[in-house]
Write a structure and sequence with these properties.
Largest sheet: 7 strands, mixed
Helix content: 25-40%
Order of helices and strands: EEEHEEHHHEHEHEEHHEEE
CATH architecture of one domain: 3-Layer(aba) Sandwich
Radius of gyration: 19 Å
Number of strands: 12
Protein name: Zinc ABC transporter ATP-binding protein ZnuC
Keywords: ATP-binding, Cell membrane, Ion transport, Membrane, Nucleotide-binding, Translocase, Transport, Zinc, Zinc transport
Low-confidence stretches: 1-12, 238-249, 257-266
Strand order of the largest sheet: 5-6-7-3-8-9-12
CATH superfamily of one domain: P-loop containing nucleotide triphosphate hydrolases
Mean pLDDT: 81
Number of helices: 8
Bound molecules: adenosine-5'-triphosphate
CATH topology of one domain: Rossmann fold
GO molecular function: ATP binding; ATP hydrolysis activity
């Protein structure tokens, strides 16, 4: 992965990324939500976006998928790239009778065998004939993971896959995601608020707050004073977000000043 920040030194791009953004800005509802984001995800790599509520994590994930249009800059996907997307939430009509198996056929043509394989990989084979409306939050997350796997993705985009999942379930879910990565050798772009998990299970971290504040390997970022300034002293345990560092933001989250030209890099 390579990242640059408006004030950061430019790093050389990896040879063959799955997807990359260059100086990406996004306006939504007339407001600048992302500003000058340059990043990439490489094959076999887990890149995690962290940041406070409203920082633009979902917007960046959706821009990477081509679901949100840049107002400036570029998003480039490798030609023929297959993506699997697990959105933060997906609402199902409570009155619609729908089994999990049928639910998984709604987006693309598939086969019973592929559905069985995807459910196995997501660890929810037992739910194949359950009604989607009866699933718990954590079970639904697993089904959405199976749905994302059905496209046989080169790139998996997982937006808070651990939400509504209990502590044991989270460990198991991330073990499954790790298995998927190793088995399929796909790249993974993850959005998470669980800093503990992020630091333990990610190759690269991007701290986002409308722009890239801080990025690098977890072990480097977690030791960096700017990371602690950004996330507070409980950073390893709690998603307590403080955004005090060496530059200021204008009302649209752009950077307006800096002392040493950036946050942290690793
Ligand atoms: N369609 C839209 N129109 C206008 N503003 C939007 C739209 N979608 C998102 N926003 C705003 O863009 C900002 C970034 O939203 P986004 O969902 O990307 O943040 P996030 O970092 O994923 O937040 P969270 O951690 O709460 O999920 C928010 O202030 C949000 O209100």
């Amino acid at each position: 992965m390579s990242i640059t920040h408006p004030h950061a030194p430019t790093t050389s791009p990896a040879p063959d990324p799955l997807v990359w953004t260059e100086n990406l800005s996004v306006r939504l509802g007339g407001r600048l939500v992302l500003s000058g984001v340059t990043m990439a995800v490489n094959p076999g790599e887990v890149v995690t976006l962290i940041g406070p509520n409203g920082a633009g994590k979902t917007t960046l994930a959706r821009a990477v998928l081509g679901l949100v249009r840049p107002s400036d800059g570029r998003v480039t996907r490798r030609p023929g790239l297959r993506v699997g997307y697990m959105p933060q939430k997906l609402t199902v009509d409570a009155t619609l009778p729908l089994t999990v198996r049928r639910f998984l056929t709604l987006w693309r043509p598939t086969t019973p065998e592929r559905i069985t394989t995807a459910l196995e990989e997501a660890g929810v084979t037992r739910l194949a004939d359950a009604a989607v409306q009866t699933l718990s939050g954590g079970e639904m997350q697993r089904v959405l993971l199976a749905r994302a796997l059905l496209s046989d993705p080169d790139l998996l985009v997982l937006d808070e896959p651990d939400q509504a999942v209990d502590v044991h379930g989270q460990a198991e879910l991330f073990a499954r995601i790790e298995h998927v990565r190793r088995h399929r050798r796909c790249g993974i772009l993850l959005v998470s608020h669980d800093l503990h998990t992020v630091m333990a299970r990610t190759d690269r971290v991007i701290c986002l707050n409308g722009h890239v504040c801080c990025h690098g390997r977890p072990e480097d970022v977690s030791r960096h004073p700017e990371y602690h300034a950004l996330f507070g002293r409980h950073a390893a345990e709690l998603a307590v977000y403080l955004h005090h560092h060496d530059h200021a933001h204008d009302p649209e989250r752009g950077v307006v000043s800096g002392q040493d030209g950036g946050c942290c890099h690793g």
